[in-house]
């Protein structure tokens, strides 16, 4: 079963039965060229010129002391990076893949692995964190949108295909990051295919919150910037307040809204996250 899909002859993308079955079976799908060249250029200009991102970025060290920078915001906002998370072909596709129930913007982040210095991210499941935030159901997902080319050399995402079927497993602290139980990950590697998700700017990866994934250090001369937008279902509204938001309407937009937007700084509060308030990476021992 192929995990890669392309646009229709008219340049549109639809969640067909084949797409849905692939997502359900593999825990992810890849859509080539979902974001056009002009659109991704606008997003790139936005993140590189945004004073908000510069002011709110912080580092996260791996177990070997190498650091990647990230910037996290809880509300989409109305700037270019926020519109990207709200357009139909991004948010609407994820909503369909998760079954069609209403979703909301849980958070977005810009992940920055600089050339020759970017750190690794340990094996983990996103729901390994989010369950601890009071999200009781694994009915959540993430949308991985590369701004730069993502290849093995610069630390592209790696996934264990189908590993979401294992359900949530235990997580514990490794460096500044909370990672999945390595013994269980080792066993999972004997059952599930390891896939290096190599993507071009504008390709999009949609993946389930229980999919095991990791990424290695960037030892190349290629920068690796990606935006990851995570969504939750309205019916899965967290049962406790934490550093990510409770349900609020997504206000989905037509695809045309991205190129029509000229704001590189949102006039709406994006709720940039203070890293000292992030409890996710401070998990000491989260058992399944």
UniProtKB/TrEMBL annotation:
It comes from Tigriopus californicus. This is Phytanoyl-CoA dioxygenase family protein. Its cofactor is Fe cation. It comes from the Eukaryota. Pfam families: PhyH. InterPro entries: Phytyl_CoA_dOase-like. Signal peptide: none annotated.
């Amino acid at each position: 079963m192929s995990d890669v899909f392309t646009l229709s002859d008219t340049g549109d993308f639809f969640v067909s039965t084949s797409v849905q079955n692939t997502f359900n079976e593999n825990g992810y799908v890849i859509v080539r060229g979902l974001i056009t060249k002009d659109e991704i250029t606008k997003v790139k200009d936005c993140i590189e010129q945004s004073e908000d991102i510069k002011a709110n970025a912080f580092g996260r060290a791996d177990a070997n002391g190498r650091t990647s920078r990230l910037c996290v915001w809880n509300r989409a906002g109305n700037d270019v990076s926020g519109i990207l998370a709200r357009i139909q072909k991004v948010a609407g596709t994820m909503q369909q893949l998760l079954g069609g129930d209403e979703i909301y913007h849980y958070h977005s982040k810009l992940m920055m692995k600089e050339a020759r210095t970017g750190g690794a991210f340990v094996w983990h499941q996103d729901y390994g964190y989010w369950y601890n935030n009071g999200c009781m159901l694994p009915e959540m997902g993430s949308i991985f949108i590369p701004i730069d080319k993502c290849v093995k050399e610069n630390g592209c995402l790696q996934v264990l295909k189908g590993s979401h079927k294992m359900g949530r497993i235990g997580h514990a602290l490794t460096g500044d990051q909370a990672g999945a139980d390595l013994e269980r990950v080792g066993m999972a590697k004997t059952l599930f295919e390891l896939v290096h998700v190599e993507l071009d700017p504008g390709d999009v990866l949609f993946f389930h919150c229980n999919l095991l994934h990791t990424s290695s250090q960037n030892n190349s001369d290629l920068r690796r910037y990606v935006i990851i937008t995570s969504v939750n279902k309205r019916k899965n509204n967290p049962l406790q307040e934490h550093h990510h938001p409770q349900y609020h309407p997504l206000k989905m937009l037509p695809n045309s809204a991205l190129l029509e937007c000229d704001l590189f700084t949102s006039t709406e509060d994006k709720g940039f996250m203070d890293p000292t308030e992030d409890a996710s990476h401070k998990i000491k021992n989260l058992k399944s």
